[in-house]
Every structure is written in structure tokens, then in C-alpha cells.
Design brief:
The structure holds two protein chains of two kinds. Chain A is mainly alpha-helical. Chain A has 32 helices and four strands. Classes of the chains: A mainly alpha, B mainly alpha. Strand 3 of chain A pairs parallel with strand 1 of chain B.
Chain lengths: 728, 639
Amino acid sequence: MESGDAARPGSGRATGAPPPRLLLLPLLPLLLGRGLRVAAAASASSSGAAAEDSSAMEELATEKEAEESHRQDSVSLLTFILLLTLTILTIWLFKHRRVRFLHETGLAMIYGLIVGVILRYGTPATSGRDKSLSCTQEDRAFSTLLVNVSGKFFEYTLKGEISPGKINSVEQNDMLRKVTFDPEVFFNILLPPIIFHAGYSLKKRHFFRNLGSILAYAFLGTAVSCFIIGNLMYGVVKLMKIMGQLSDKFYYTDCLFFGAIISATDPVTVLAIFNELHADVDLYALLFGESVLNDAVAIVLSSSIVAYQPAGLNTHAFDAAAFFKSVGIFLGIFSGSFTMGAVTGVNANVTKFTKLHCFPLLETALFFLMSWSTFLLAEACGFTGVVAVLFCGITQAHYTYNNLSVESRSRTKQLFEVLHFLAENFIFSYMGLALFTFQKHVFSPIFIIGAFVAIFLGRAAHIYPLSFFLNLGRRHKIGWNFQHMMMFSGLRGAMAFALAIRDTASYARQMMFTTTLLIVFFTVWIIGGGTTPMLSWLNIRVGVEEPSEEDQNEHHWQYFRVGVDPDQDPPPNNDSFQVLQGDGPDSARGNRTKQESAWIFRLWYSFDHNYLKPILTHSGPPLTTTLPAWCGLLARCLTSPQVYDNQEPLREEDSDFILTEGDLTLTYGDSTVTANGSSSSHTASTSLEGSRRTKSSSEEVLERDLGMGDQKVSSRGTRLVFPLEDNA
Amino acid sequence: MERQSRIMSEKDEYQFQHQGAVELLVFNFLLILTILTIWLFKNHRFRFLHETGGAMVYGLIMGLILRYATAPTDIESGTVYDCVKLTFSPSTLLVNITDQVYEYKYKREISQHNISPHQGNAILEKMTFDPEIFFNVLLPPIIFHAGYSLKKRHFFQNLGSILTYAFLGTAISCIVIGLIMYGFVKAMIHAGQLKNGDFHFTDCLFFGSLMSATDPVTVLAIFHELHVDLDLYTLLFGESVLNDAVAIVLTYSISIYSPKENPNAFDAAAFFQSVGNFLGIFAGSFAMGSAYAIITALLTKFTKLCEFPMLETGLFFLLSWSAFLSAEAAGLTGIVAVLFCGVTQAHYTYNNLSSDSKIRTKQLFEFMNFLAENVIFCYMGLALFTFQNHIFNAFFILGAFLAIFVARACNIYPLSFLLNLGRKQKIPWNFQHMMMFSGLRGAIAFALAIRNTESQPKQMMFTTTLLLVFFTVWVFGGGTTPMLTWLQIRVGVDLDEKHMGIVGLDKNTTKAESARLFRMWYGFDHKYLKPILTHSGPPLTTTLPEWCGPISRLLTSPQAYPNQEQLKDDDVECIVNQDELAIHYQEQASSPCSPPARLGLDQKASPQTPGKENIYEGDLGLGGYELKLEQTSGQSQLN
């Protein structure tokens, strides 16, 4: 961001209109607000500063002003909280009445808009009290200034640079300035919980089944959509230039940047409706997975586009070196954040070796701190914290979650749910507010119309061709109606907004910001409201309890039961094969769906199951069996005692299962819980009881939305049959 | 050239943002270490070091490392600008540096002698938070949690004593400490260690008031673990919670006290202004906090929000937070408002929440409390080394140690004596000694002291406060278990069934202390407030006079009617017989479907009870006790 600006000498940096409103999240001063304290020499000799435009006032005025500003901060924060309270109450009303045309986020935006209007037109414009100093000696700005005012020293911190033309605009309505937050707040405080929550709740069976498609949509799709939107917008900009509607520069990189920020889809509204209506799980998993990973890609993409600065002065020319540098930056940041997130997520395996689960509070706190550290660490290393947090969330859900005590599971889940809920609604109500309180909107109808066309074309060019290619590889095709639905649910939300508001210094960026805001409004209200009709129009199945789905899942459970059943003599190898073959047609059907997870995924699954799971959790086969003999010592100390109980049944069957079924990891994830729960009990009935208990708790998170209750029953039924057959 | 410099300053900014991440990371790391250590200690049942003590130790170590292991970085030297034309300091400065206009924001005033230390270590500077963070971010959850968990049966039983200790006791202790410290300051001036005129009597009083905020979190944790006598627990807990509120407001009004001419002379007008301030702020904050809690109670009562626990939790959290913000916006004390908001929320709103939300809110605030508390204690450890303007004055520190002991003694013993005149169940000597002993200082004293460290006396106070907190938390906190055995205070109370029975019989005698005023309050609370704000209590239609029938019908929730029968007849007598029945009722009320109180055993077995108990008496394991109580109430009715 910084370097990008530095490359453009014409444009000033921060505009001064959004002063950091620190109170809200007074953590912020720690993160960013605190100026580098450039100490000042006590030598009061240099008299380089000459004051102009000073009026005689009381010295005490400043103290009072500080107090006053604190009070105003409280008021502006209070405004937001009241907005949120109102939103919550209205949401309740809507949920109560089952009104589906308006999601809570849409509602938050409406309330934000109303308050924005009131603030804009209902409050008198106050004059700013800024004084201008002319400083002749210094050739650069310090971040802290000590000013000697008639014997007293006052400390000032640097807030930002103001381009000379905008000085007047700073002195505008004070109240509007108050309710404008520092854009970094979004990145450092509001987005991380949202993204972490998304990652943490990503652990759904269907996510891994569709991993290939999701990755393709997220990476390739975002790139495609970014380029198409960028190019279309460049055309629009050219057109505007011809028509003389452009009053400032607008480069191709700016267009690409716009393409990147607008590629971050956020179908929170659609997903909420899917969730409620139990729409098809595959569709849900595809959309959710895409949108989550999408965000990460868009963030990194936009920051690497900003980093693209050709060596020459001509920003239009294509510079291969700079281009490859940008690509390198993209890959570097992405993989860096990914590793950071994954490693710290994995690091949380302290939960495995300590018996922390006796103290859920400590466990929860540790979990929270670890996840937060990931964010900070990534930021400190210059990676993208939000991306790191996303992968941290996924890893935590995959490994750490299994080690937590039951209480901590619900605690962490609820904690992040509340944080997510608050942060999300806050952002959306801020969006509503920003339409009126942001003071430098640039409305350009052509650009806006062009953007609308571009995002639809971009979305179409992203979904249809990719789906076509994916369908070549997939056995279980993505149907046309699914594709239409995915095309339709290209909503834009919090991430696009946060990326757009991050830098609103130049003319081009301001226009982008305005356009993004309007696109978000439009998509959330219109498309979000149209989801239910669209679903019925596209004939997408609603209420998942279809037999095919059921059967399939039932068979997963069956395998897994056979695989881990700890309370009986393990069925001999060929026996289990028999069982599998007995299920021939069904298992074939299962396989068909899974075929898409290709060889590399299967490899990863077996690695995960054989090495990572046992190292990081209490589940999986003991390491002593999976690792080669020469690292036996290491294996012994890394294997948790609980694992040995499961050893017998697991060892024999693992290999076949891993080979036959790509997505067994998931079932193993579940089975661990069961194994723990039932390892102590040795009669079938008690273990049943135990497994039901633990399973239902784990299910709660895994498949909270799928309503798989009866399926569970049936799977238990099948499971009971096996041991009997064996014994007979 | 120009462009380079601009890139430079942008890089600076970029860097300090990352530095911010690093600082926070240090704290995160410290907290993680603390958590692991706590776990180890808890696992091995070490009681000599509480988690807060552990956090301080880690903070100290980290401070030591930062202080001596990092090289003092060479910071660019700025200049002090002499603004000839500027006669005041505006809130925003626009500085024009070779045609680039930079905006500067006013941060604070720096007194002259503080300027030079600024050239020290940049990292140390960075590790120093803005003190307002304590008041705006870290303390509110701690205080709210304290208020929210104050709802214990014994609290109301001992309300009179607790209020006396909190209000009178804090005032006494403030004045005693102030006077003693004033004596020491005078002596120091004689001994030539202090310039005359630096240290006013108001400064001493200020020190006294901030030192009066006790925070026996360590002691309470141990009590909790060992199941120490409930009355003692309640007295200490209640005192320390209310204490904080009193101390904060007191400190504020003392700092406002500014006589016209001579700061040492007594100025009646200014004094009464301060007193008025104290009362006004306290009452205002109290009203603000309660008002928000009442709004929450009404909202949760009349909407069926309990179908969506997440929304309910969100609403609860937001409204409690707005209590803080509104109080701040109105110029009152947010923390005090939040405390009373917590108490009221626990008393009314809690009953309206769904059982899921009950657990959620409790866990959420518990979690926030835990983190905030450990951050503060960590920071304390760190501040000993990273704060750059420490003034260690051995004489003053010794004086302060002496003063707090004397003041604590003056607070506890005379007040206990007076209270014992009125109480049927006396506060025995060993309880008094224990209370005297557990006058630990903690987060509030620290936050109050760090709020203003501009002048030299304030810096001296800050250093002294820090040392006092260290000493009391480590020594007193560690010595709690030996002290308990030495004073022969009963431990493991709840296991003693027989004792419980006795307590149950003693009930009436213990309660005599709550005087007529309290009984009136209970009656009012039970008859009007509870039915209006919660689903419990008798329906308003029966308690309100005839002429406000429509209102009462409107306000009574449908669930109240089923209870009507059973409640109506035993209410009157019970309220008269037993003033702490209000509590009893509300427990009954939160399980309206369960049969009347007499079915003690069944009720205990009913599924709601454990969940409820969890918060009501989370620590005390009062199952058996409750049973007895219900029997007693039955008996009292038979009589």
C-alpha cells in the first residue's frame, strides 16, 4: 500500500478525512495508532517553526477538548451499538416471522443508511480547529512532534499526510469525521474474527469431498474474474476518457486493482438462506468454500497488484520484471501466510500433551490467544494476517478441535460465533453509514454501470467455463442449475468493502470505493432477497433428506464403523473386504462422487491420517506403527497413551480404506471421538451409548446444519450387525 | 530528495504498524506462558502462587529482558518547536513541510522534566500502553464480571455489613492513608528528600483513595478452592467489588478538588463541591447502569429472543457495553455504571435468558475477565522495568507500606466492632484478622495510579503502588493458606452437612441484621420489580392496586399466572418472616414449571437446578444447603 502510493507522486496519501477513531477498539492504538516516538532533543534552540494563523485562547482548552473528544468518541460508538441492538431486535422479529427476503446484514445496512442520513443532514457543520504551521527547516515529517507553546510542551502524533488541495475539506463536519473509522480497523479487528470463524466452521464433510472444485473456483476463478473485470473496466475508463468524464488519472493497474477487490465474493446472505432451507449440501459446500478461499486470494491479489510498479515512469507500459515480481509477491505472501497459519494452528497441539482439558477456561483462552498470535505473527513478518488466520482456523478445526474437551468445543465455537456475528453486522451497518458520512464520494454513472456489467460478466466467465472443465473431471457433475445458482450468488460483502476503503487517497480509488459500496448494496439487497425465489425457479432441491444423500452418508458411517470399532475383536482383513464388497453397488456410488479427489489428495489424506493426525491429536493409528522403525523413540514420545487402545482395530484396516476412499479422513476425524468415548467400555451396548454421545457432540459442529439425525440412527443399526456376523 | 523522505516516513509508519504487532505478540506470548504455568500449578495443586502472581513474574522477566538485553536504539532526534505565535495547543496541527502538509493529532502535555528520558530505549517506549486502555478496554469486563457473579445468596444476607465496609471503610482508609502519608511527606521535606511545595495534601489524599481499592482476587480464588466459610467469602468479595467503585469515584472527586488560591488550605466550597461531585457521579453511574440493565430485562422479557441464543447473547453484550459508553458520554464513570449494570443484569435479566444464553453469557464474561486480568497483571510486571519515569523513594515506600496496614486495621476492626453491635451473628475475631490480612491491592489501584503520571508526586505514587501490588499479591496471596490454618478458619464448609443444618436454623438470627429498610426493599423488589422485569414473582395484577389494572396486565408475562396460586398465599407471610426470601423466590421462579417449593428433593433433581446453581452458587456446592433452606421456609410457614 505504502509503496504503491510512493510510486504515484501526484496523489497524496491519507486524506485526513478519516481520522482514526481509536476509542472503538482501543486496541487499535497498539496496533497502529501509536506513533513512533521520535524523541525530541531538549535543545529548544531551533526556532524553525513559525506559527501562523493562531488565535488567542485558553491553554486549558486543549485538556477540555481531549475530554470532549473522548466523550464524542463514546457517543459515536454508542451510535453503532444502538444500531446493532436495533438490528438484533429486528432480526429476531424477522426470524420469528420467517421473513426471508431480507438478511440481517441487509438490515444492518438499512439502519446504517438511515443514521447516515440523519448525521449528514441533521447535524450542523462545525468548523474544524486546525492550525497550519509552516516549517522551513525540516525535510521530512517525524511521527511525533513536540511543540513548545509558551513554556509548555505538547506532544503531537503524526496522523497522515494531506494533499494540499484537500486541506479545506478537513475542516468539515466534525460529527461526520467522528463516525469515520480508520480503515485499518477493519483489517486488524473486525475481519479477523469473521475470517477465523469461516475457517473454523469450514470443517464439513462435503468440503473435503469437493476440495478440488473449490480450489479451482477460488484460485483460477478469482484470477479469471479479476482479469476480466479489470479489462472491462479499462474499456469503460477509456470510454469515459473519450467522453471527457474523467477528471483525474486512472491507470490500468487501478482497473486491475478494482478487479481484485471486487472479486472477493461474500454470499453470507445466500448461505444463511441455504442453511435455513437445507439446500443441497454440495452446492452449499461449493459456495461456502469458494467464498472463504476467495477472500484470501483477493486480499493477496490486490496487495500484489499494488506492489506492481514498473521501473520506468510510465505506469501504462507492461514491465515483465515488475509483473513477475508481483506474481512472486503473490505466491510468497500467500504461501507465507498459509504456512504461518498452518504452523501455528498445528502448534496448538500443546492441547494434546497437556491435560488442559480439565480447565475449559484455560483451554479456551489458550485457543484464542494462539489464534490471535497467528494473526500478529503474520502481520509482524509482513504477511497477510487475515489469510494466516483463515488457514489457522482450518487447521485448528481439523486438528486442535479434536483435542479439546467437550465444554471447550462449545465455548470456542460460541465465542467465535458471537464475535463473528457482532463484527459482521458492525461492518455492514458501517457500510450503510459510509454512503453518507464518507466525504469524498465520486459518483460516476458510467463507471458504476460498467462495474455492474463487469461483475456479472466476470462472474459468468468464472463459473461457466470452470464448471465445464471441472465437469470433465468430476463424476458427479455440477448441474446446470447449480451453476446458475453459483453465478447468481456472487454477492459482494465485507471483504470487498474493507479492501476498497483501505486506500481512498486518489481520485481513482475514491471512485472505486463509491462503486464498491453501491455494488455491495445492490447485491446484498436484490440478489440476497431473490435467493428463495431463485432456488425454487432453478428447481434446486431443498430439504436435504433425499434417499441418495442418505444412503451415501450411511455408507460412510458404515465404513467408519467397521474401521474403528474398538469394542469387538477386529474383523480379519478379508472379512472387512467382504463386507465392503457386499455393499458393492452402494460403495461404487460413493466412489463415484469421490473420484474427483485425485491422486494427490489421496496421498495427502493418507499422510494426514498416518502421521499428522497421530502427532497432533489423540486419534489415528499410533505413530509407533506408522513411522519407520528408526524413529521409534520419537514416535513413542509423540504418541498419546489413548491411541494405543485404538491400535489393534485401526492398524489392520487402515490401508485398504485409505486406498479405497479418498475422503476417509473425515470419517476418521469423527471416529477418533468415538474411539475415545468408547475405548473404556467393552460391551456393545455401552459403546453404542458412548459413541452416540460423542458423535452427536462432534456432529453438532460437523454437520450442524444437515439434519442428519435419522441417518445416524440407521448407521448405528448397520454397525451393530457387523460384529454379530463376525462372531457367527 | 523530497520523494525519498516521503518514502522514508511511510516506511516508518509501515514499520511501526508491524512493531505494534510485535508488541501485542509479546503480550500474547506472555499470556500463553502464564496459562500453561497456571495449568501446571493447578494440576499439582500448588497454592502459593496465583495465576495473577504468575503473570506478574513473567511480566517482570520479560521487562528485564527488554530493559537490559535490547540495545538502546538510536532514535532520530527531533526538535522542540518553539511556536511564538501559538498561544494554545490546538487539537490538530497541520504542519507544512516543504509543501507536504502533514496532519498531527494532539496527544498529551509533557512536563519539562520528562522530556529528556524520552531519548531512551524505543522498544521500552513501545511497550507502554496508553493508560486509558485500562479504563476503556481492560477494566470494564473485569468489573462487569465481578458484578455479574455477585449474585450469591449470602451477599444479600450480609448486604448491610458489605455496604458499611465498602463505603465507610473506603472513606476511612482513604483519609487515614492520606494523613499518614502527609506526615511522611512532611518528614521527607524536613529530611531534605523532597522539595517543599511539590506534594500537597490533596496528592496524599489522592494516593489514599487509589490505595483503598482492594482486590483480593488471589485470596478469593483460594477461598473458592478450599471452600472457606461462606460468610467470610461474601464479605470479602462484596467489599472488594463495591470498594473499587467507591475508590474510583473518590479518586476522581479528589482530583477535581481544586481550591482557589492556596492548594494546601482548606476550602469549604471546593470541598463540598467535591463531595457533591462524588455523590452525583456515583448516583448517576448507578442509575445509568441500572437503567440499561432494566432495558435489557424488559427486552428479553417481552421478545421471545430466547429462541436464538446467539442474538440474545449479542444483545446482552451490546447493552451492557452501551451502559459503559453512555456513562462515559454523559461524563460519569463508566466502570461504576458497568458494575451496577452487572449486578442488576444478574438480578433480573439473568432470569429471562434461555438456559443456553445463561451459560454463554457467563462463559463469555468469564473468558474476557480472565484475559483482561492476566493482561493487566502481566503489564504490571512489565511496567516495573519498562516505565521510564520511576521515582523510587525508599522513605515514601516504607511510609506507604505502613500506612496501608494501619488504614486497613482502622477500616476493619472499628467497623467490625460497630457492626457486631447490630449483628446477631457476630463477625468473629479470626474473620476480622483474615479480612485485615487480605487487603491485597490489584488492578484498580494500578490503573488509577498509571492514569496520570505527569507530575513528580504522581510518578512516585505510581512506583509505590506498583511495589505494593507486587508485595501484597505475592506475599499475602502466597500466605493465605497458612494464614487460614493459623486462624483456624473452617475449610470445606459445604461438606459438613450437620453444620449446614445449624446454619439453616440460625437463618433467622443471622438475618436480623438486614434492617427494616432492607426488608422494605425486598418486599418492593419482589412485588413490583421482579414481576415487571422478569417472568417470575406474583403477577402484577395482584400486587398493584386496582386503578393501574391495564398497565399491570400489560406488564405481566403470561408465565407469571401459573405461579400465581402457589405464590400468592405464601408470599405475604414469607416476606415478613424471612427477608432473604426474595432470593429464594427467584430461584423458584426460574423454574416455574416445577412444583411449589415444598418439594425440595424433587426440585433439586429437576434438570434446571444444576444449570441455575452453576451461577448462583457456582462455587459453593450448596445443593444440600438449599434443601435445608426450603424446609425451613416450610417450617416457618407452619409456624
